[in-house]
């Protein structure tokens, strides 16, 4: 008698013995061996094809997990530039960004008003207190707001063009400095929650400001739009004066809180945020100071930034792990910013 050494066949035989008793001996005949071998092969084929859907499912899950992991690696988990959490539910209008004026539909171009986009700190007056965009209270001096109206107003705290760093430091102090605040204006551009079109809301807000006679409270001037060429000329003029850009608001728009399809911002250069990965030492005239920052974008792209810093910023560069804002003109084919330069350390408020 020939011994059967196939493990699957032996297992199958043992199953048959347990089911039908000892009529199957431990030394099966050649005919029985062939029969059992055929049955074992059939079982294995059935098992193989029955597992195919499960194998495909497992491969699909693995592939999705791999893709998710790759995306996670490209966009670091601790890289976050989310919009501030407005936990008080302030009625803020947030503009959409335009790359150029031609993106506006020419059919309704003349329905827009345009104004300078101030490089200031967003401030919302709810009738009692001033708030940052995030909902945190601004510690303004009592005299600054004591004559403000009881209805809401929205605008920018502003010290002048190219003065953002001074302004930012002043308005974020726990104890307000009167001397600093006397250099600050509250420049209004919206009457939150008011009825009527944007043009009418502005006029109502202007009437309020005119009655109050507060020197540091004013409306940001608006200009009617006539053509794309006019927008481009205005943007060029403001850029030469170191202004941040333009805001275009549909004159007939009702008030709409949140990201609005009726309000756009237009800048001569684009800006974005990136995370500081490393600080590279300077050489030559920058010996002993920072030479450049190694940055990483939210998409995981890394590049060096070495322009836009003054000597004080090079002596005390942004910390590793912090976020900075940089300006750029365009993107390269590989997804890196062209002509990037440092603007400031990024703050979410």
From TrEMBL:
Keyword Hydrolase part of the UniProt annotation = no
Where on the tree of life does the source sit, at the highest rank? Bacteria
Q: Where is the DNA ligase OB-like domain?
A: 282-345
Q: TM segments? A: 46-67
> Carries keyword Transcription?
no
Keywords per UniProt = DNA damage, DNA repair, DNA replication, Ligase, Membrane, Transmembrane, Transmembrane helix
A single MF term (Gene Ontology)? ligase activity
Quote the NCBIfam families the UniProt record gives. PRK09125.1 (NF006592)
Name recorded for this polypeptide: DNA ligase
């Amino acid at each position: 008698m020939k011994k059967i050494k196939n493990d699957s066949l032996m297992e199958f035989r043992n199953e048959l013995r347990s089911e039908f008793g000892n009529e199957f001996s431990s030394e099966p005949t050649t005919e029985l061996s062939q029969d059992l071998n055929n049955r074992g092969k059939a079982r294995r084929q059935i098992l193989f094809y029955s597992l195919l859907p499960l194998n495909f499912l497992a491969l699909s899950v693995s592939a999705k997990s791999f893709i998710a992991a790759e995306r996670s690696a490209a966009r670091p988990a601790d890289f976050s530039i989310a919009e501030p959490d407005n936990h008080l539910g302030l009625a803020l209008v947030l503009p959409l960004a335009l790359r150029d004026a031609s993106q506006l539909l020419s059919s309704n171009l003349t329905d827009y008003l345009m104004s300078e986009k101030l490089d200031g700190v967003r401030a919302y007056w709810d009738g009692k207190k001033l708030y940052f965009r995030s909902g945190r209270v601004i510690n303004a001096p009592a005299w600054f707001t004591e004559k403000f109206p009881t209805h809401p107003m929205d605008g920018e705290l502003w010290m002048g063009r190219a003065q953002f760093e001074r302004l930012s430091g002043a308005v974020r102090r726990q104890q307000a400095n009167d001397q600093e605040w006397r250099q600050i204006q509250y420049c209004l551009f919206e009457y939150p929650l008011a009825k009527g079109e944007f043009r009418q809301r502005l006029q109502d807000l202007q009437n309020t400001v005119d009655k109050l006679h507060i020197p540091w409270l004013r409306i940001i001037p608006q200009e009617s739009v006539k053509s794309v060429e006019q927008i481009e000329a205005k943007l060029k003029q403001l850029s030469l004066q170191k202004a941040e850009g333009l805001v275009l608001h549909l004159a007939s728009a009702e008030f709409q809180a949140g990201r609005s399809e009726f309000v756009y911002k237009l800048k001569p250069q684009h800006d974005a945020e990136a995370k500081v990965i490393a600080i590279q030492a300077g050489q030559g005239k920058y010996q002993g100071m920072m030479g450049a920052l190694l940055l990483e974008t939210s998409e995981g792209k890394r590049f060096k930034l070495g322009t836009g810093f003054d000597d004080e910023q090079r002596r005390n560069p942004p910390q590793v792990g912090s976020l900075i804002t940089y300006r750029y003109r365009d993107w390269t084919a590989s997804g890196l910013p062209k002509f990037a330069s440092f603007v400031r350390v990024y703050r979410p408020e």
